[in-house]
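During the reporting period, we have paired protein sequences with backbone structure tokens. One record among many follows, to show the layout:
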Amino acid sequence: MTDLLYSDVEDALRASVRSLLTDRSPASLVLKRVETPDAYDTELWHALASDLGVAGLLIPESLGGAGAGAREAAVVLEELGRAVAPVPYLGSAVVATTALLHCGDTELLRALASGTRTAALVIPFTTPSSSELSRSARSLHVTVDGPTGTTITGNVTSVADALPADVLLVPTADGLFAVDARADGVFVTPVVSLDLTRQLADITFDGAVGRRIATGAAATDAVRAALLAGAALLASEQVGIASWCVDTTVDYFKTRYQFGRLIGSYQALKHRVADMWVDLAQARAVARYAADCLATGSDDTSVAAAVAQAFVGPATVRIAEECLQLHGGIGFTWEHPIHLYLKRAKSDSLAYGTAAIHRAALANLVDLPSPAA
């Protein structure tokens, strides 16, 4: 049977990441940062990517990575979710890296592993399926062997982790292209985002030069694998969010007095926190299974990812909502970080497809007949 318990290596990795985040990215600093134009913390990302080497967890040692796997990446995402850290780990070290691994682009993988460059897959953050991906790809026009080589024209909206990216991986009807994010003809425009710690951006290409890294089925498979990895490991970030909400609520119940009593002594409130803990325990099991399936290349990976997003997303939103409610008035203030966690939870629940979309996908995967059948 698969052992979903955390290994000693995973526990050590968690301790290192949590220590760094506690020191470099406490809630007070994250709250200050969302008031500034700099949505992403580049110094924190450098410390995580280069000093701890977490950017290369999924990349083989032969290419300068750690040669680890999805379970280790999931642990990092749990801690990043717990801190709502404004870094592009999911978009660069998971989604873009997975696409490049399937394409075999060693040059870019070495750069990502070292932490010197970051990448983003240019798809809407809510893209859940190949059909929507195809619509996005068709919106981009590719001119091959034009005056400056292969160029791309068009736009894609609501792309995550694109603002700090050095390289944009652009799926088109003519294949997958790598485009320098700072090149002429590339315009990355931040948009108002629900999640202030992961700002989305609209990207316009106006004759931007691209380097084709995959074509045909290879390009399609690379992007599908990236979406699958993103959906599966996003659940671990959601678990981190939920974990912080439960722990913070329990701590608050131990110190907050109302009518001369600790609010944690009221049975009705105890029941609500217990329900939060049960949701968290179930979500953690589902997320760990999805990460393990991805790590082992299990045939059950698609099912596990669909179950993860169908269950963990709504559960995390419920937990974050309860956390805010149970903190009373202070929970509704801008000064308390709870709103950052609720917004990240809600944004994540829409990323890579809503729960309803993943339930429908799961029904197809397990050959469940439709109600009309």
